Amino acid sequence: MATDLAGSEQAWRRWSAAAVVLVVLVAALLGFVVLPVLQSRSTGLDPFTAICRALGLQAGTPAARQPVNQAKAQPVSQVAWTEEVIDRLHQPNVAVGDETANVCAGCHGERGISASPQFPNMAGQSAFAIYKQLNDYKSGARANDLMAGIAQALTEDQMIAVAEHFAALTRGTLDPQAAGVDDPDIVLLAADGDPARGLPACAACHGTRAGGPIETPTLAGQREEYLLAQLEAYAKGERHNDVYARMRGVAGKLKPDEMARIARYYAGLR
Amino acid sequence: MKSPDRLTLAHLWVAFAAFAVACFFGVWQMWARSPLAAPFFTPEHYFISVTAHGVSMAFVLTTFFIMGFGYFTAESALERPLPGKSWAWLAFLLGILGTVMAVVTILSGRATVLYTFYPPLTASPFFYIGLVLVVVASWIWCVLMLVAMARWKHANPGRPVPLAMFATVANAVMWLWTTVGVASELLLIVIPAAFGWRETVDVGLTRTLFSWTLHAIVYFWLFPAYIAFYTMVPKAAGGRLYSDLMGRLSFVLFLLYSLPVGMHHLFMDPEHSTGFKFLQMMLTVLVTVPTLLTVFTIAASLEIAGRLRGGRGLFGWLRTLPYDRPMVLATALAFVMLFFGGGGGLVNMSYGLNALVHNTSWVTAHFHLIFGGTVVIMYFAIAYAIWPRLTGRQPESLGLQRLQLWLWFIGMMVMTLPWHWLGLQGQWRRVAQFDYANPIIAAWGPWVVLSLAGGLLLLASALLFVWNLASYHRGATQAAAPFRFALAVHMPERVPAMLNGFGVWNMLVLVLMLAAYGWPLAQFAVLSPPQAIVHHVGQGG
């Protein structure tokens, strides 16, 4: 009886382990070998590549042909928000920032309020927003004769320092509180977008507590002329340093009078 | 009232209080998504509500219910005092503290990340720490369950652990494995990000770690329902359990196959290869086996009861079952919902078909039907079954209990069948509102209103449930008789050691997890993929 019991215990262990291992092996054989090899016949991949893809050792799926075009896509911006860049923006060199800001103050004002309506205010912008644009001017992703020359003369350290200089100087000065412009249609468009036209709300990215990309600029209190010029440039595709063409997509769907009213609305927000 | 009764009652009341509040949130959410104008509606309020609903239902109701029911089972099935009562009370207090932290952060709008988190969206750290405390409380419960079983086995060498306790410990063991995923995600990645100690997170890695937890957690919730099927229903129906061994085998299979399958939640994600998704789909297929075994065994047990009550012919036994008893009625209704919900689940777990229903209301319908339907209706039945023992009082009205169960069943069907239909038409889940000006979306309107009506029935049922339980506390007192679980037709004298403990099964779980998650997790260390920038909700854009 005791031997029977011991024998049955052993059989339980053996058979349950065998069943589990068999299940894994069959599933693995199907998923890693049989299916990818069969799929590779219709996608023109060699079996080895297909198996490597199924295992995750190579990128792509064995079920789809990868594009054969070797042309490199041109990124719209060279800025990559790596941990290193973000850390550096949090630890700027204050002295370098103060010194570099002297160059900017002529047009953008000592405290980030611009001297002329065609130049944007720096006040209220985050270091991420300023750094992104400086970097884009330098790389040519954003075209502007005046700014290209200035940005190309700046080092990486100077761009980081000056971005943080303006961000720190004016942090919180331009939190949108109340609209200075009474335009209910535009308030609605900015808050809710227009789903019928596939237009997202401006506030979805540009609002406080919004979930837009880290480099999203503050619009509240920005110069009206500057905002309108940017919307028009995006709509025509003249400005194209927006990742995933987000702003080109939005501006292209706006009517000219809406652009003007949006610019007036945001300029009036304090 | 004895101290373990107070312990169980405290847990179950917290669970059901959270449940009742969460039902209000749920109904409001459906109202918000309907063409009818809902009060207090803003998208932000919607996501506060979804988070509160999900956290209350998925973490608070379940964890407190399972802990309370586990303490009850350990005492009743083992017929021994519960070890470590002060630890149990400490765990209860930790759970309460954690719940309060989570609730405060949610209601203040600083945790609109849903109960499934979605990094790089990041809530207040106190939200996650609160949830970690609830998990730590459940870990204490797991240890107490393991100790209770070990002491019983030591005192009863060679005897089979009573099935109810074996299943409870299977759940505890599974839960310890399950929580490794979410605990790693929270402690190593999300909480440091929430405190601002790290600027970026690897979303692929966090999603993979959460998927480790995401399917098995559902089985953690499901276990009490299955424990009731095996150890309460046959007795309530007036019969015996068809097979004790089948029960043990089912619970062991749940332990094995609920864990290495979570990637079926990531079929549409880019961070994993097709082969591993296929492997986990195959393992997911196997998790249907214990459910099919259970349906067979419980149907056979009910047939025994029906025939003992005079049922004749192929299906005559179905008519003679005592449906006036809440446990039997709830089981019948649970099986109907399991049929629809399980069928929907088979679609979700199919790698190809999943693409059709991914991120649509179909999925929401599926988990409401299975968890909110099959599982929660059995929570009700369990509460009705053990409340007389816990309070030492008679129920005031079985009629109201039956009405409550029917309301829940009808409400759940009316709510979820339209969701399935809308999901097939592409209605998104996790969005606050629909533009009913769009003609295609306008056609959804009547179905959404119908599901809202189902939601109102569910809310009525939830309130009636709380009323029914509260009425026990003023019912006629009776002598507290010990609670008895169902007996099997052939009560086993001895069972193989593998069906009386979990040692070898743990080794097999390890093998399965290494096969299913080994490289999918290791690749994040080897390949260093790109990171996403942390976004803090409620702290400015």
Give me a quick take on this structure.
The complex is a heterodimer of chains A (270) and B (541). With 270 residues, chain A is an all-alpha fold.
Q: Tally the helices of chain B: what do you get?
A: 18
For the record, the count of structural domains of chain B works out to: 1
- CATH topology group of the largest domain in chain A: Cytochrome Bc1 Complex, Chain D, domain 2
CATH homologous superfamily of the largest domain in chain A, by name?
A: Cytochrome c-like domain
Oligomeric form of this entry? heterodimer
Radius of gyration of chain B: 23 Å
Class from helix and strand fractions of chain B: mainly alpha
Helix count, DSSP H or I runs of 4 or more residues of chain A: 12
Instruction: Provide the helix percentage of chain A.
Output: 55-70%
Count of beta strands of chain B: 4
Give descriptors for this structure.
heterodimer, A: Cytochrome Bc1 Complex, Chain D, domain 2, Cytochrome Bc1 Complex, Chain D, domain 2, 3 domains, 12 helices, B: 541 residues, mainly alpha, Cytochrome C Oxidase, Chain A, two-stranded parallel ribbon, two-stranded antiparallel ribbon
What topology does this entry show?
The complex is a heterodimer of chains A (270) and B (541).
Chain A: H1 2-43, H2 47-55, H3 83-90, H4 94-108, H5 127-139, H6 145-152, H7 156-169, H8 184-192, H9 203-206, H10 224-236, H11 246-253, H12 256-268
Chain B: H1 3-33, H2 43-78, H3 85-107, E1 121-122, H4 125-155, H5 163-194, E2 200-201, H6 203-214, H7 216-231, H8 233-236, H9 244-257, H10 274-308, H11 316-319, H12 326-348, H13 351-357, H14 361-391, H15 398-424, H16 439-442, H17 445-472, H18 503-527, E3 532-533, E4 535-536
Parallel strand pairs in B: 1-4
Antiparallel strand pairs in B: 2-3
